[in-house]
Design goal:
heterodimer; A: alpha/beta; Rossmann fold; 6-stranded mixed β-sheet; 4-stranded antiparallel β-sheet; 9 helices; B: alpha/beta; abc type-2 transporter like fold; 4-stranded mixed β-sheet; two-stranded antiparallel ribbon; 20 helices; 6 strands
Chain lengths: 240, 433
Amino acid sequence: MVKDLVKYYGKLKALDSISFTISKGEIFGLIGPNGAGKTTTLRIIATLLKPTSGKVIVAGYDVVKEPDKVRRIISYLPEEAGAYRNLSGQEYLNFMARLYAKSKKDAEEMVEDAIKIAGLGNRIDDKIKTYSKGMKRRLLVARTLMVKPMLAILDEPTAGLDVVHALHVRKIIKEYARKYGVTILASSHNMLEVEYMCDRIALIHKGKIIDEGKPQELKKKYGAQNLEEVFEIAVKRGSA
Amino acid sequence: MSHLTDLIKKEVRDLLREPHILIFAILLPAVMYIVMGVVITGAMESALEQATTTGTKVAVINFDKGIFSILFIKFLEQMPQSNVTILNTTNIHAALKFLEGQNIRTLIIIPKDFSNNISSGTPTYIRSISIIKELSLSSIMGANIISGVIQAFSKTLLTTIVKEFNIQMKPEFIIQPIKSISDVYIRNKFIPSEILSNAFGMIFSIVFVPLIVIGYVASISATSMGIEKEEKTLEVLLTLPVNRIEILISKLTGSFIISLLASVSAGIGFWFYITKIMSVKTKPLISEIAESSITSRGLFEIVSLNELTLIIPALLLTILLVAVIGFIAGALSQNVRSAQSIAGFIWIPLFLVIFPLAYLELASLDLTSKMIIAIIPFSSPIIAIKVMFSNEYYVLMASLLATVAYLVILLFLATKLLSSERLLLGIKWRRKF
């Protein structure tokens, strides 16, 4: 639950009283252009930044007052994430799995899952520094999902992926959310991606939520063909 | 702290696989000292060889023609590998011009009345001119060799005169009637002063090698945070289910392990360097010129091995202090390059403290001054050396306590920094106009 979230960077107001709620097992999309405030919102929820004012509660825990407890139930994928380049893909996944797993068996299962999600084949044993941008992103998505978090926070999950791999990742995210009841909060400026993946979306523009709802309902509400048109009309109405 | 081992393992593995850390911090110190040992030893041996060859290849202008000048020339000819050319000219400049074209570097001039002066007991001289084409170790040694030869002839001559005239004195007495025997009294013991300086040099070597490594520690520690930022792994790291203290400890332990490896590597290299330098064999004639002053003789005549181990806690705490400073520098910067630039400045205060303290006589200061020096950051390794001699262990204890206090303060700051957004957003240095 995000309520009246405000964030200033110096004098710049990055978030202007943002509020939204995500239900358990839901895939929620935060949609908006670059600089709209998506990453700032996700970073606050992921306990990386502190809000200037407002409240964020994840599964009953306050992100400001109980960040350690929040970190135990979330898994975050930043937009420009990297992985330890001198480790192999397998070593990286093993390391991450051990931090979340309760037992060795748990960790092994997580890594097995991740290897399937990443689809890197034998390259999983190669050093990460030899991976292409797309391979690295698939590894990172796999790392985020393998731990089956209560809330997965994905900032532009398919950034840097080609069409085929982006489709694969979207499918995996959807499957994972359904199969394990993982709640997903994803940001994107790719409207097609959002339409395919998200149960509900919030449109964010200049630090404000300008509308919120199911993609089909929003299209109907604005009489639009697609979400891009929805966004365009919503922004115009907002500034009118 | 359940994830600490995993974090440390990751840290060490990641740092060790970083090529520039492996090369510059671990392999290079050992290789550097080994290469220095080989090169310097080679240069010394070659200089000695060259000096021996050129130093004993001489030309002589004899203005005297008397018995003692003939004896001197014979003495020269008896030197090992000697090659003596007698010049008939009386023009020294012309002779030097001529010698420049030859491979003869030394001109010896025996003055007129040389023999007469000796016969009448009047002091005289032999002049030697060394032709030096460039400033090198062998040319300096060559110039010294001929002085040694003249001194040796003088001594032989004196011995002969003492025997011939049946003088009831030893030749050594006539040369030097009063000899200075210089001892120092330290820790209830009499130690020859030259042994003391050797021991002192040795102890400082024991401290300075790890101090060189400390520079790498700052760099490694700063790099480990810089890499996290540059490779964009920091955001994920900070959202993992591990607390900030675990992240801090794992980073410091990783840097500490790498710096210990670097210390061992530098230590092995340094040991090789010392033993190699000491193995240079000097010829009897010139041994007094080339004798190496580096020796551990006398070190354990003054301090025990147990006392020497006092340096260990002082060094370890200093290394840890530098590692934390490096970590903070890395945390405040945006990438590896800026992290290393900031860490590079840690050398300056470190050496600004250590060098002046090396010259200072701590024991002669009053208590307040001692305590002020004890609380200066990075002073404990040098204080450890000093109290080894003076037995003023309370000064070291004060210094160690001060270092621990700095560590606690800096660790607290580092933990705060890890919890702050500054870590992620960095510090933007803005110039105000």
